[in-house]
Automatic annotation (TrEMBL):
It comes from Streptomyces resistomycificus. InterPro entries: DegT/StrS_aminotransferase, PyrdxlP-dep_Trfase, PyrdxlP-dep_Trfase_major. GO terms for molecular function: pyridoxal phosphate binding; transaminase activity. Its cofactor is pyridoxal 5'-phosphate. It comes from the Bacteria. GO terms for biological process: polysaccharide biosynthetic process. Residues 386-410 are annotated as: Disordered. It holds the Pfam family DegT_DnrJ_EryC1. This is DegT/DnrJ/EryC1/StrS aminotransferase family protein. Residues 394-410 have a biased composition (Pro residues). Belongs to the DegT/DnrJ/EryC1 family. L-glutamine:2-deoxy-scyllo-inosose/scyllo-inosose aminotransferase subfamily.
Length: 410
């Protein structure tokens, strides 16, 4: 039996696509990019994305081309991508930021016209559907992360179109995996338990502040240090995952370690609770969508089709950085902030900059990704902090259905 096939079968049943088990979504993306893109190719992607993903694209020997995004949700705005850019790219990588879907209909149509692959990053979007179809079934391949919705801090899937491709990718994966280590397995099993204990015991604030003080966080800022000269040197070895490991492994050092039975058993248990988790997320998203801080994408969806079971609910607030810092005192650590956009972060040596960087800058600097599982606590904290709603310079392309903030305790 191929490695991780029981877990993969569970995901295949959910998604209706063939799945390969991987220790992380970043490894899934690397596999997909290596399988569908020739080294030297150019990949259209959103600059409002995890820096780790930028390094995965570079590790695959590809040039990241930063797309214009919508200030509405931070995802690629296909209509704003210049025709010359469309004609010059070899693949498109979606983000589905925080679980809000990319404009997959338009992206897959353009990719089909151009004869290039759409690769879906579904790491944030495990429960998101578009017209009744799950995100992760629109492209050639899709990456899912179990570190996100089920908080496993390990595991993921690569979903592909057919059994033959799955078998091919299982072999590619096996070549990249590093052997199981008991220590890594124990850490992967205990880490999520430690995190939930910290939360249950209301220790988020002291634990976070202590990690900050001891320098245990891999990012001082929202982005990791780039180390440009070392990055240029690694480019000489690309495509090569090992050459980029110092960047790709950030936040998940065992991203390519073969998990043993202990970890896989725990992941199966967590997968069996996924539907309950998604139900709780929808409830939290409903609460957050009714507040004045909800991004237009959030409000609009809740008003028309019901809530998505988001990984994070994008709220838009003034003075976001100071607010995020104060939220730690309320026991809320706001992760997954991708600021500045990747073109400002990495510069033209490493990426093609977006032709219209303003919406990405605005969105990245105002979005506060809120965990829907903590919706009550977030609303209470933002109310106490008198957080004000950020308004985009240009009006967002939706009718104004804004409601007053939800009263506390609802
Ligand atoms: C948008 C996005 N894609 C992919 C990943 C990688 O997921 P994993 O940690 O499972 O490798 C992350 C990680 O945070 C992410 O934010």
């Amino acid at each position: 039996m191929p490695y991780g096939s029981r877990l993969a079968a569970t995901m295949t049943r959910r998604l209706g696509r063939e799945c390969v088990y991987v220790p992380s979504a970043r490894l899934a993306l690397y596999l997909a990019l290596r399988r569908w893109c020739r080294p030297g190719g150019r990949v259209l992607m959103s600059p409002v994305n995890d820096d780790v993903i930028l390094f995965v694209v570079l590790a695959a020997g590809l040039r990241p081309v930063q797309a214009p995004v919508s200030a509405w949700d931070g995802n690629i705005d296909p209509a704003a991508v210049p025709e010359a850019t469309w004609r010059g790219v070899d693949a498109v990588l979606s983000t589905n930021l925080y679980g809000i879907p990319d404009r997959v209909g338009e992206l897959s149509r353009r990719c089909a016209q151009l004869g290039i692959p759409l690769i879906e990053d579904a790491a944030h979007a495990i429960g998101t559907h578009v017209d009744g179809r799950p995100i992760g079934t629109f492209g050639k391949a899709a990456a899912f992360s179990l570190s996100k919705h089920v908080a496993a801090m390990a595991g993921g899937f690569l979903a592909v179109e057919d059994g033959r491709t799955r078998r091919e990718l299982e072999l590619l994966r096996d070549d990249l995996l590093e052997p199981t280590r008991l220590r890594a397995d124990l850490a992967a099993t205990l880490r999520p338990l430690a995190r939930s204990a910290v939360r249950t015991l209301h220790l988020v604030r002291p634990a976070w502040r202590t990690m900050q003080r001891l320098g245990l966080l891999e990012r001082d800022d929202f982005r990791m240090p780039l180390h440009a000269p070392r990055l240029s040197a690694s480019a000489l070895r690309a495509p090569n995952l090992t050459a980029y490991e110092p960047w790709v492994r950030v936040d998940l050092h065992d991203f390519r370690t073969r998990h043993g039975a202990l970890v896989r058993g725990q992941l199966r248990l967590r997968m069996s609770r996924l539907d309950t988790d998604l139900t709780h997320r929808r409830a939290g998203v409903t609460l957050l969508s009714g507040t004045a801080w909800a991004s237009p994408a959030l409000r609009d969806r809740a008003a028309h089709d019901g809530p998505y079971p988001l990984f994070r609910a994008p709220l838009l607030v003034d003075d976001r950085d100071a607010l995020a810092e104060r939220l730690v005192d309320h026991g809320i650590v706001s992760g997954y902030i991708y600021d500045p956009p990747l073109d400002d972060y990495a510069g033209a040596e490493f990426v093609d900059p977006s032709p219209d960087p303003a919406p990405a800058r605005w969105f990245a600097s105002h979005v506060l990704p809120a965990d829907p599982l903590l919706a009550h606590r977030v609303i209470r904290a933002l109310t106490r902090e008198r957080a004000t709603t950020a308004q985009p310079a240009a009006p967002a392309p939706v009718p104004d259905t804004r409601k007053p903030p939800t009263p506390l305790g609802q």
